[in-house]
Amino acid sequence: MEWVNTTFIDTSALIAVLNQNDQFHHSADHQWKKLLHSKHNLMTTNYIMVETLSLIQNRLGLEAVRAFLEDVQPILNIMIWVDDTVHRAGMSAVLTGGKRHLSLVDCVSFEIMRQNGIKEVFTFDRHFKEEGFKCIP
Description:
This protein is α/β, with parallel strands linked by helices. The protein is 57% helix and 13% strand. A five-stranded parallel beta sheet has the order 3-2-1-4-5, sandwiched between helices.
């Protein structure tokens, strides 16, 4: 299945949107507003949600977690729950990738995007570009 007009949302973008002290905040905020006014479906995974919530709680506190869950999560209109097959493919990619800073969450995201024909990602993580995805901004 190929999802037309779907943008995958990565942790790095979500954190940049929420954290005014993030080096990419201004760019992320501008792009986020553009995406919200577009006709794109905003898609992510439960792995991205776990990673994002952990970072928000650690860096910004519980009030920021509450705001994220109430204001941002409902906007992400497609949530893919990672199954065992995708998890194993991600683990295999981590081990064969040979890159210390390439995370399981990234590898699972690549797998989900490829399986669903998603070519565009809102991210500030260079690994997506290295994997051949169109990164915005």
